[in-house]
Amino acid sequence: MMTLNKTFKWFDCNRREFLVGTAALGTSLLLGDSLKPKADSLRVGEEVTIPTCCHMCGGGTGVIATVRDGVVSKLEPNVDNPIGVCNTSTGYYENSKYGAAMCPRGLSAIMSLYDPDRIKKPMLRTNPKKGISIDPEWQEISWEEALEIIQDKLKKLLDENRPEALITFSENSLFTDVQRDFCHLFGTPNVSFHTNICSVTRKSAAKSVLGVEEPLGDYQHCKFMLLFGWNPLSAVKWAHLPQIILNGKQNGSKLVVIDPRFSETAAKADKWLPILPGTDGALALALAHVIVKENLHNERFINDWTEGFKEYKEFLTDKTPEWAEKICGIPSDEIQILAREFASNQPAIADVWVGPGQQSNGFNASRAIFLLNVLVGNVDQPGGMMLTEEFKLGNSPIQTSQSKTKRFDGLENFPFGHRSGVYVEAIRHLYHQSGPYPLEVAFFTMSNPVLSLPNSNIVVDALKKLNFIVVIDNYISETALLADLVLPGTIYMERSGLVTRGTNWKYVALRQPVVEPLFGQLPEVDIFIELANRLELKDIQGKVAFKDISYEDYMDYRLQKSDAGITLAELKSFSGAVWRSNEETQFEKYKLRNNKFHFSISTLDLGNVDKFPVFRQRKWMPDSNYPFYLISWKHISHTHSRTQNNPYLSELKNQNFLYINPETAKSLSFNDGDRIRVNSPYGRVTATLRITPGIHPKVLGTEWGFGHKGFGKYAKDKGFSVNHLNGLLSDEITGQALHKEICVNIEKL
Amino acid sequence: MEDKKLTRKKLLITSLLGTLGLVAGELIRSSNNIEEESDKDDDSSVKYGMVIDLDRCIGCNACTIACKQENNTPPDMNYNVVIEREEGEFPHPKKKFLPRICMQCDKPPCVKVCPVGATKKLNNGIVTIDYEKCIGCRYCMTACPYGARSFDFGENYNTPPNSFESTTYAEYDQFYKRDKTMPALNGVRKCHYCSHRLAEGKLPACVTACLGKARTFGNLNDPESEVSKLASKSWSLKDNLGTKPRTMYIGEWKEERGKRCVNQIVYGG
C-alpha cells in the first residue's frame, strides 16, 4: 500500500547511521496500527528526480528537482554540488555529511514556474505612445511572426552597415556566452550584462590589490571575520555562505560587522559598528594605521610578497583613529581595539561587498579593505582571503572577431571598468543623444533597468528614444512596458547552462531543463542562436556560425575543451550532474606564480586613479535641505527586483518600509507606521515608516526591489523603489552604478 | 460573496481562539497533572525529536518555504514559522529568530480535546492528524499552546490553482491533492516532522534545506545520536505547561524561556 519507497542515491552519502535506523523503522512504524493505509490512496504515475542548478539569483546553488506526472513537485538541495555545501574542498568534505542547503528563493521557484502572471506568448506593441502608465495595447503574435519582425529590424542594421546600433543587456551568467558570440558575429561591440550595476567596485579593487576579480574568503577556517557593508547571512548568493560563516563562528572565530544598518549578519556578530555611509575607506585606513604603527603586520609576508609597503606606511602616517573617528563616527578607541583584535586573531579576513561599493568612493574603500588581508599576510592560505580562480570552460566553438567600433557606453574611459559595460553611461548617452553613434535596437534579457538603475525617470525617457526594444522576461516588467516586442522567457527549470562560479576549487555543474518550456517558448540562448541562423551570421571563416550547433553542442564543446575534459553526456551522468576536480583547493598559488600584491597602483597611466587608496568623502553628501543618507539592502526573501511576484516570497515580504532610528523619529515627531513622503532633488516617493534601533541615526534605509508598476498581482503597487530618488550616477573609476549614494528629507503625508 | 464568508469564518475563529486561549493554559496544566499517560505500552525503539540551535538560525525562512512546497500548504498556513523580534537600543540592538513547528508534545493537549480521535500520538513520538476522521471542529487549535495548528479553508494562491497547487503531494502515508473531495481540505493541519519523508529515509524538509544548519533531527531513544546529545542541554517552549515537547531548542533565547517568551508566541501561522 505504501507508495513512498524511494531512497535517493545522493542521500546515501550523508547521515548514514541515522538512515539505517530510520528508513526501516520509520516505514514499519508509519504502517503500524496508528495510521491505517487508505483504500483510496492516490497513485503516482511517474516520478523522476533531475539534478540541476538554481537560477533564482546568480548563485547557481545545486538543486534536485522531483517531477511527478510532469509537474515539478519538489526542489531539494543537491549535495554533490559544492554550491550549498562549502567553497573549499576541505570544507566540502567536512560539511557534506550534513547535506547541502537551499535558500527560500530557490525553494519558492516552483511557484514562479507555474505563476499564471507569466508572459506566455510573444506580444507586439500596437500603441505607438510609450510610458510606464500607458497601455502598450499588446497584440499576441506567434513566435514565427515575432522572430521575423526582429530579423527584419536587425537585417536593416546590417544592410545599412551599422551593426553597432544594436545593444544588448542581460542578467549575469544567464546567457552571456551566446550573447557575446551573437554580438561579435553581428558586428556590434555593445554587449553588456548585470555586473556593473552590482559589484564591479569589489571586482576591480580586488583585481588591483590581489590580482583576482572575485576573491572568496575561507570563512569556515578563519579566526576573525571583519565584514564591511556585506550581509552574507541574508543577502545570500551562494547557499553555503551562512553555513560556513556560522561554522567559523562555532569554531571560535570572532565576527565584526561594519554597516550603517544592523543587518541579519550583524545580529549574529560579536560586534556591530554602525558607520556613516561612504566612510568605510577611512576606517580601513585607520585600522591599517594602528596595525602598522603597533607593528602587528606580517613583516615577512610583506617583504616577500608585496610591493609598495614603505610608501604605504608613509601614506598611513596621518590616517589616525582620531582622524577616522571624525569621518566615520566610530570612536577612536573602538578602532584601536578592532585593529589589534583583527591583527592578533589570525587567520583574519577583511571583506567588502556592495555596501561601500555602490558609492562614489567605493573603489578606494574596497582597496583599503582588501589591503588589510595583505597587511596581516592572510592571503590564499587556510582561513584566508583566497585567490579564487573561476574554473575555465573551453573557448566557444564559434570563431568570431570582436568589433573594432567604439562601445556606445564609453567603457574605455573607465580605468577599472568591467567587460559587463557601463549601463548608466549607455542610458545617459541615449538620453542626451550624446553617444558616438545613434542606437536603434536594444535587447533586454531578464533585465529591468527601469527599476534597477539609478533614476528611473531618466531611464524611461532614454528608452523611449530607441527605435525598437525587445524584452525577454517572465513578466511584463517596467522595462517591458516600454518595449515594442516582448518574448516570454524561461524559469531556470526550463533552461540549460553550465555553472562554474563561487568556489575555491574546480567544479562544473549542469543546469538542465527539468520540464519542457511551459509555453513552447524558446529558451533565451536559443532565441539568439535562431536569430544568428536567420541572419546567416558568419564566423571568421565565412561559415554560417551556428548552422549545425545547438546549445547542447556548444556546452559539450566547451566542456571537452576544459580541464575537466568531459562530454555533456558524461556530466549529465555524474551524480548530481556535477564534475568536481580531484585536485583539492590550492593554497599559496601566488608562490608558484611569483605574484606580488600591490599596496599602490603604479603600473598604468593613473589618470583619475589614486596611487594609494586615498579617502575622499563621496560626492553627494547630506546638506540642510536633504539631511539624511538613504541606503538600501537586499533581504533573503527576494532577488533584486525579480521575485516580488512569487506568492510564497510575497508572504515572507510583500512590501518595503522606510526604517528610521528611534531618536531621529522622536526628534521629528514621527511614529511607527506613519505614511511619509521621501524627497530628493531627483524625485519623491511615499513610504511607510518603521522605527528600529538597528539603524544609524543619520541614515534612513529600505529593502531593495519593490515598487513595481508592472509584473503581476503579488508585486504590483507594493512598496517603493529608491531609484526614483537617485541621480543617474556611475563611479568614474569602475563604472559601477551608485545605488547607495542618495540624500533625502522626509515629511509627513 | 464567498470571500466575505471566509473572512467572517476566520474572524469568528480568531475571536474564539482569543477567548478560549485565556483558559487553555490552565486547562492544559490541570489535565496533564491529573491524567498521567505512561509510556509503558511503548515498545518502539525510535522516538523522533528535533533540536533547533537558535545561535545558528539566521531567520531566512528556508524552513518555512521548504515546508510549504513539501506539504503544499495554502496561503497563510505554515507548519513552520520563524518568529522575529528586534529589541534593545541603538547602538546595541538585538535581533532574534525563533523557528516554531509542531512541538510533537509527549503530553499533547491537542490529542485530549479531539472529539473524534483524529489526532493521535504515535509511538514514534509524532502527533498525527487523520484527515479522514477530522471533522474540522478546531478544538485542537485552541488547545495547542504553540499555535502550531491551522485550518485549511481550501484556498489557493492562484485562482484557479496552478499546476503545482493542484498536483499530487504526500503527507503521512498518503498522497493528496488540493481537491474538494480530499479529506485534508476543511480540516486541521500541522507539522508531522514530514513523516512521509522519514518513511523514505529522508530528513524533514526544513532540516534538509536549513541554510544555517541549525536543525538536528533524529532518534531520541538512541543516547549516542547527535540529537540526543544536544537534547540533554536543550530547553523547551512553555515548559511550565508540562506538555513535554520533542522539538527543543538550544541557544540564545534560553535565558528568556520564562513568561516573557511564552507571551510572545502567537496563535496561528
TrEMBL record, chain A:
InterPro entries, per the entry: Asp_de-COase-like_dom_sf (IPR009010), MoPterin_dinucl-bd_dom (IPR006657), Mopterin_OxRdtase (IPR006656), Mopterin_OxRdtase_4Fe-4S_dom (IPR006963), Prok_Mopterin_Oxidored (IPR050612), TAT_signal (IPR006311)
GO molecular function: 4 iron, 4 sulfur cluster binding; metal ion binding; molybdopterin cofactor binding; oxidoreductase activity
Annotated SMART domains: Molybdop_Fe4S4
Entry keywords, A to Z: 4Fe-4S, Iron, Iron-sulfur, Metal-binding, Molybdenum, Oxidoreductase, Signal
Keyword Transport: no
Gene3D superfamilies recorded: 2.40.40.20, 3.40.50.740, ADC-like domains (2.20.25.90), Dimethylsulfoxide Reductase, domain 2 (3.40.228.10), Formate dehydrogenase/DMSO reductase (3.30.2070.10)
Keyword tRNA-binding: no
Name of the protein this chain belongs to: Anaerobic dehydrogenases, typically selenocysteine-containing
Family note: Belongs to the prokaryotic molybdopterin-containing oxidoreductase family.
Residue ranges annotated for the 4Fe-4S Mo/W bis-MGD-type domain, each copy included: 46-117
Cofactor(s) required for function per UniProt: Mo-bis(molybdopterin guanine dinucleotide)
Automatic annotation (TrEMBL), chain B:
Protein name: Molybdopterin oxidoreductase, iron-sulfur binding subunit, putative
MF terms in GO: 4 iron, 4 sulfur cluster binding; metal ion binding
PANTHER family linked: PROTEIN NRFC (PTHR43177), PROTEIN NRFC HOMOLOG (PTHR43177:SF3)
Residue stretches in coiled coil: none
PROSITE patterns the UniProt entry points to: 4FE4S_FER_1, 4FE4S_FER_2
Keyword Phosphoprotein found: no
SUPFAM superfamilies referenced in this protein's UniProt entry, alphabetically: 4Fe-4S ferredoxins
Residue intervals of the 4Fe-4S ferredoxin-type domain: 48-77, 93-124, 125-154
Keywords: 4Fe-4S, Iron, Iron-sulfur, Metal-binding
Listed Pfam families: Fer4_11 (PF13247), Fer4_2 (PF12797)
